[in-house]
Amino acid sequence: MNKADTAFVLASAGLVLLMTPGLALFYGGMVRKKNVLGTILQSLILISVVSIEWVYVGYSMSFGPDVGGVIGNLSWFALNGVSNTPSPDYAKTIPQTVFMIYQCMFAIITPALITGAFAERVRFVPFLVFSLCWAIFVYNPVCHWVWGKGGWLGNIGVLDFAGGLVVHATCGAAALAGILVLGPRKGYGRTSFMPHNLPMTMLGTGLLWFGWFGFNGGSALAADEIAATAFVATHLGGMAGMLLWVVMEWLFQKKVTTLGAASGAIAGLATITPTAGFVGPNSAIVIGCLAGVVCFLAVNAKARFGLDDSLDVVGIHGVGGIVGTLCLGLFASTSVNPGGVNGLFFGNSAQFFIQLIGVVAVAGYAFLVSWILFKVIHSLLGMRLADDAEVEGLDSAEHSETAYNN
């Protein structure tokens, strides 16, 4: 066991946890003021709900002994057998408890990301039921497929350094399913849904960017050169995404916005995530630039399809995660990470198609199961706010609170 690695991963876990309240502020600033507390709470409450799920079943389903390449068994139920000694299968220089809690932070923020898609129109209790079921039936299996010992996608060579598939593709697919099942907000296409507090969103952007260094850098699971590679790639991907997004704004709209800069940064960070530990600085900049262009176009295309993706989860996280996963099959290099692979541009065309299999399998599965969950929970519990409650706002109708007393 290495004390430096242990300290590094513990610090990284704290950074990843910080991303959830950062996300709460990022989303909270973009909704109307009557919905800000309800939107923030949807992220924060998942720290509790998903942590409980992770301790009792989530960690064992995701990383426990393999069953047919599909799921981990429940032999680690309630963390039975998870000790302060290193695991022979995961992170061999840190206690397994440290690996467990680090991965818990990923499990928390992933369903929180989905909330941006149906912001301002979902009841709290059905939302909790959906989030718990989604963690069990979508996140845990996909996590095992890609990162678990014996998972079938990992076995065929699919790579995902820090969550392009496990986090961003799953939440993007789920967001699309939710939009289709729940429908648009009342007045969509006729009413202005302007952000009520963009400084709050910018603060959330800063916290997310800061936390992303733990998200990606910590995924090396050691204080080593791969962590350094991921740290550098993360920053370069985020800054390039921001730059190209505002360039696209200028070309298409003749103006640059703070919301666009924030969106571009998050798009770049999401897109570099699956590749962060496998690519060099120049490749990271190219990937970030692709994120700024492709995610901008995706976000601006939603209106043509009548999709009320309130806070652009599909266009930024879903599209970004998929683009980044495919870019791994293009830009990965063993000269950067000897434990990785070469991509198409370094002589190995097969890896791109392996990554494509991962994208199709994960996005397809996450969309289908999420759609079923939304349908069932909506029909049994009614996920949508009533029309009068939606006009009143989440804060008052669901929580009897107000963010601003004036």
Entry keywords:
mainly alpha, two-stranded antiparallel ribbon, 2 strands, 67% helix
Tell me what you see in this structure.
The protein is mostly helical. The protein has a single domain, classed as Ammonium transporter AmtB like domains (Ammonium transporter fold). It contains 14 helices and two strands. A two-stranded antiparallel ribbon has the order 1-2. Strand 1 and strand 2 form a beta hairpin. The chain starts with a helix and ends in a 7-residue tail after the last helix. 57% of the residues are buried.
What's the CATH topology label?
Ammonium transporter fold
Total individual domains: 1
Computed CA radius of gyration, to the nearest angstrom: 20 Å
Strand percentage lies at: under 5%
How many beta-strand segments?
2
Enumerate the spans where pLDDT stays under 50 for 5 or more consecutive residues: none
CATH homology superfamily name: Ammonium transporter AmtB like domains
**Major sheet: order of its strands?**
1-2
Category by helix and strand content: mainly alpha
Secondary-structure element series? HHEEHHHHHHHHHHHH
Helical stretch tally: 14
Q: CATH architecture, please?
A: Orthogonal Bundle
For the terminal residues, how far apart are their CA atoms? 56 Å
Mean pLDDT: 97
Any idea what the shape is? globular
Name of the CATH class: Mainly Alpha
Helix fraction, binned, reads 55-70%
> In this structure, how is the largest beta sheet organized?
2 strands, antiparallel
